[in-house]
Specification:
Blueprint: H1 4-18, E1 30-35, E2 38-43, E3 46-50, H2 57-69, E4 83-85, E5 88-94, E6 97-98, H3 109-121, H4 133-146, H5 153-161, E7 178-180, E8 189-191, E9 199-201, E10 208-210, H6 213-224, H7 230-242, H8 255-280, H9 286-300, H10 306-309
Antiparallel strand pairs: 1-2, 2-3, 3-5, 4-5, 6-8, 7-10, 8-9
Helix pairs in contact: 3-7, 4-8, 5-8, 5-9, 6-7, 6-8, 8-9
Length: 311
């Protein structure tokens, strides 16, 4: 858990930003996240986020600026630049209604596909850093290596070794690069204004230049592992293609482009799961074991496409 001084100070900042003209406030603050890498507080219609301690201000500033310039795709910030609080970079955002986790049938796969396609078609803003996806995957594997013994450690590390160097953050990503979100999942969509406004993408921490296939990789990996129903994957992919998304061919086999990224996201997710399980000495749950099994197949059949290795 994050230290109380940061959380208390962030709550005060959110209240001040939400009620700039009021001295007293009847609202109750809500802590949306309190993790080492992010502290997020909501106060009325304002959300304040303290970013990870190692966040580079030279990288975060152009990411926030990109969100401000693309309000039709990304939720725009309330303030144009990050500020410092207790040694952490802080940004302020309008509140948006998230995806309802208890209503999977209402998951906005079409909106996610269309927003991603528009993001990928947008010219890359000057000064934007590289998309952080491969670096986050490499960090997850490094933490797994440091976690000590676990029966699932070997297959996950074996799958990691089959990936191309760029997917392990050991070489530049291929191609000219597109504007990418870097960490796409359904938790990164909100409706603004709440509760039924248009969907927008949130969280710019990984936004940057890279291979747009990475943004399709998490749902692709979950589909390949049997964790995302085929109809939901089809809705997402069809919407992306209908909006002229450049990450995959207009028709035909998408795995020609998605294979390496989907493998990398499978390894990243499995590495995180095994690291958490090892930390508390618990067995893997069914979903986590499914991801580890997919890694084992990747390690034994490195040339087989993702759609085959995981089924």
């Amino acid at each position: 858990m994050t230290s109380h001084p940061l959380l208390a100070a962030l709550t005060r900042r959110a209240a001040a930003r939400a009620h700039t003209a009021a001295e007293t406030c009847p609202c109750g603050a809500v802590t949306l996240a309190d993790r080492p890498d992010a502290v997020v507080v909501r106060h009325a219609d304002t959300v304040a986020k303290a970013h990870a301690p190692d966040t580079d201000p030279a990288d975060l500033a152009p990411r926030v600026a990109a969100a401000a310039a693309l309000p039709h795709v990304l939720l725009p910030p309330l303030t144009p630049a990050p500020t410092m609080l207790h040694g952490r970079l802080v940004t302020f955002w309008p509140y948006g209604a998230p995806v309802d986790p208890d209503d999977p049938d209402a998951a906005p796969w079409e909106a996610a596909g269309a927003l991603l396609a528009e993001l990928h078609r947008t010219p890359v803003p000057a000064g934007l850093p590289a998309m952080r996806g491969p670096a986050k995957a490499a960090r997850a594997v490094a933490l797994l290596r440091a976690a000590g013994a676990h029966p699932a450690r070997a297959p996950v590390l074996g799958a990691w070794r089959t990936l191309p160097a760029w997917a392990r953050a050991e070489a530049p990503m291929p191609g000219a690069g597109a504007l990418c979100h870097g960490d796409l999942h359904l938790g990164q969509l909100v409706r603004r204004p709440a509760p039924d406004g248009p969907w927008r993408l949130i969280d710019v921490d990984d936004l940057g230049v890279g291979d747009p296939a990475w943004d399709l990789a998490r749902p692709a990996a979950w589909f390949a592992c049997g964790l995302l129903p085929p109809d939901e994957w089809s809705r997402f992919l069809t919407a992306y293609r209908a909006a002229a998304g450049p990450a995959v061919p207009d028709a035909g086999d998408p795995w020609v482009r998605l294979d390496a990224s989907a493998r990398a996201l499978t390894v990243q997710t499995a590495a995180r799961a095994v690291t958490k399980a090892a930390a508390v000495g618990r067995p893997l749950d069914e979903v986590e074991q499914c991801l580890v099994d997919a890694c084992a197949r990747m390690g034994s059949l490195p040339s087989q496409v993702a759609a085959d290795f995981a089924k």
